[in-house]
## 1
Amino acid sequence: MQRFNVADLLQSDNFLQEVILKGWVRTFRSNRFIALNDGSTIKNIQCVIDFENTPEDILKKITTGAALSIKGTLVESQGKGQTVEIQVLDIEVLGDSNPEEYPIQPKKHTFEFLRENAHLRIRTNTFSAIMRVRSSLSFAVHKYFTENGFYNFHAPIITGSDAEGAGEMFSVSTMDKKNTPLNENGDIDYKQDFFGKETNLTVSGQLEAETYAMALGKVYTFGPTFRAENSNTTRHLAEFWMIEPEVAFMDLDGNMDLAEDFIKYVIKYVLDNCKDDLEFLEQRLIQEDKSKPAAQRSEMGLFEKLNFVIDNNFKRVSYTEAIDILRNCKPNKKKKFQYIINEWGADLQSEHERFLVEKHFKCPVILFDYPANIKAFYMRLNDDGKTVRAMDVLFPGIGEIVGGSQREERFDVLKEKIKALGIDEKELWWYLDLRKFGTAVHSGFGLGFERLVQFATGMGNIRDVIPFPRAPQSADF
Ligand code: 4AD
């Protein structure tokens, strides 16, 4: 007898076929009806047991969370709510689940409670739906780049350089913390450390990706990145996954086109392939909205929002235009913003980004040409001498989802910039080499994968779209 998964059985009309299925009990009603889920779909299959002929000790063990192996016949369902069901011939309890102790009961749990039980939360409808969507998005990322002639490049996770120059890195060391060796200046002597130099977990694979783009033409990395910033927000993680394409001979306009095309493709992919999960998540959002004040409710349903992104052009706006809009907008004039925008050069906060996207333009926005002094050292300087070819993609409900730029390809300009910022040139000798040997215009961007999953699933907190979130004071599991 063949084993089937629930997703396939629910599609089947091969009635009277005898099948084996394995999964976990979601609910057990009236000592007869088991709702069984095996993770292959958000839907459960109803398995109807012959109560009179099932031993009492087995019946007692059919509780929420128990793992079962069921042999049965696929039949058309007599009841409402499903088209097929299983008439159980034989049932084996593979692993029981004490209802007094099992935390995930068939009732509403708060997200806080589920985060504390992150090893079990995947057994709920909400988390299984999110993680199936996450998995599909991840596949779509590789599919898009493969179909468009990109090579996948694995950037190192341990690095000796600080790509963003923000100094928010986790150090990697095997030195004895109680007896750290010091050099003659009294500083930590990294020469005695594992790598013989100071090393950290990477904040971005970009600098290394540039080396590969300058030989393979079009590359992308998709790997874990780490930020030691003390940001306790619904959009920040200390460990997150970043997608970073890098393309030779492409300027900032090409970079904006790529980001827009890529985002639309992966969102369309989940719309086409994750219908059941998205339908469940849309209903979840509707329920959640009911408990919120009217002003905080979503203006669009999940499907509407995802289709909106696919169907509309992202609005491209220069930083200078954005500052003009912000300076003259109501919340700025009425001092409703926490950070008031007074002049050109101000760094935009998430409240400003969200105003532009959600209130002013009401669509995804790409801001470009930022002031040089609020952006990283590697971005290409414009002829005005004060702005750089940077771009950020801003999304409703999320804020910044992509950060990227055209890279400074001119050796002398880059060397000057590195010097002016007090970065040790020797650390970046290999990066400068790219500008010495066959330099060319090139660009790329980084998209925070969890922010994309947040958008696609409608989840409010980034900690709920990664299996085991790492954030300040939180690294369980
Ligand atoms: O804007 P960022 O810092 O850009 C870079 O790291 C560039 N080196 C990327 C490149 O050009 N190859 O980060 C890129 C994106 C952000 O737009 C955001 O979506 C995400 O990474 N991100 C975070 N996501 C979750 N938690 C955090 N702490 C994040 N910091 C950035």
Note: The chain has two domains: 6-102, 123-168+203-464.
## 2
Amino acid sequence: MSSTVTVNNLSHIFGKGQLCRTVLTDINLELRPGEIVLLTGPSGSGKTTLLTLMGALRSVQSGSLKILDQELKGARKRKLVKLRTQIGFIFQSHNLLDCLTAAENVGMALKLHGGSLSDRRDRSHEMLKTVGLDEHSHKHPSQLSGGQKQRVAIARALVSEPKIVLADEPTASLDSHSGRDVVNLIQQLAHRQHCTVLLVTHDARILDIADRTLHIEDGRLST
Ligand code: ADP
Ligand code: MG
């Protein structure tokens, strides 16, 4: 496989009739295996929309979007659900379930992949150890700091060893020190697992982790 994500002439419109608004125009890009690519651009420029399209969380309207050699345009729901299990998501707000412990939150990501409960437990604990939280695996998200919660979210995104990780402003709610830790961790794990990362950020302090930086403005991409 020469590319993990291939986007051709992708456009996206929100709304209908007089209220309709084009938020992505003629996007073309390619993400290669193991690459860490940053996506920057002002608020409202279409970054999250592009990420959710790539994550099969939103239907492709026009153009072509291929993930792991599978076309998303016109794809059936079942195929999209299956593809989503091969993508790790990290959001600005960690999106962890507070009714579950850190270890259970990570283990949830493995549930769709099968395996025994004890195997899932072992892998979740191993992953939490990797992100430096082995002492905290029994805690609930509300008992953790912002940076720790985001590290749990990273563990959850990467525990199933996805080929692609999509991260939407993962450092936005963190102080600069925790933000740095979080991106270093994403970089380190992505290299180890040879996983492609697309990371949306406003944060000029972390530009150095990227192999490449893309810029989007008013729904149009430039490098
Ligand atoms: P960014 O992540 O770069 O801030 P978004 O992709 O979230 O930008 O939004 C791009 C544009 O699309 C914005 O003008 C936003 O208001 C609009 N938008 C986003 N989601 C929706 C939606 N579900 N319905 C209508 N408009 C939307
Ligand atoms: Mg956004």
Note: The CA atoms of residues 26 and 168 lie 21 Å apart.
